[in-house]
Amino acid sequence: MSQNTVTRAQLSEAVYQEVGLSRNESADLVETVLDEISDALSRGEMVKISSFGSFQVRQKGERVGRNPKTGEEVPILPRRVLVFRASHVLKHRINEVQEGGAPTPARALS
């Protein structure tokens, strides 16, 4: 599996190349979109991006965990967690057969 990471700078550069805005405008656009998504999630709203997926904040209740080293039981406090669910379009794109008919690595293991 690849260890590459897509950065804000790379997203901004892609917007610059594809849309034709200036580099500063592209960076501002990416920042604005990410801020809007973050703000909506912090308010507890679901964010759906068509053909990509949805982000949702879920509340996890208090539970008892166990320290694997000592075996001691410890309470895990309630918290909010971010959940991403990929759309069927994205899942299909990830699992597509590569050019030339060779299966993707994920398919080769199945």
TrEMBL record:
GO molecular function: DNA binding; structural constituent of chromatin
UniProt keyword Transcription regulation present: yes
Entry keyword set: DNA recombination, DNA-binding, Transcription, Transcription regulation, Translation regulation
InterPro entries listed in its UniProt record: Hist_DNA-bd, Histone-like_DNA-bd_CS, IHF-like_DNA-bd_dom_sf, IHF_alpha
Pfam families in alphabetical order: Bac_DNA_binding
Any single GO CC term annotated in Swiss-Prot or TrEMBL for this entry: cytosol
TM stretches of this protein: none
Annotated GO biological process: DNA recombination; positive regulation of metabolic process; regulation of DNA-templated transcription; regulation of translation
Family: Belongs to the bacterial histone-like protein family.
NCBIfam families: himA, PRK00285.1
Chain's role: This protein is one of the two subunits of integration host factor, a specific DNA-binding protein that functions in genetic recombination as well as in transcriptional and translational control.
Assembly mode: Heterodimer of an alpha and a beta chain.
Name of the protein this chain belongs to: Integration host factor subunit alpha
Organism: Azospirillum palustre
Organism ancestry: Bacteria, Pseudomonadati, Pseudomonadota, Alphaproteobacteria, Rhodospirillales
Gene: ihfA
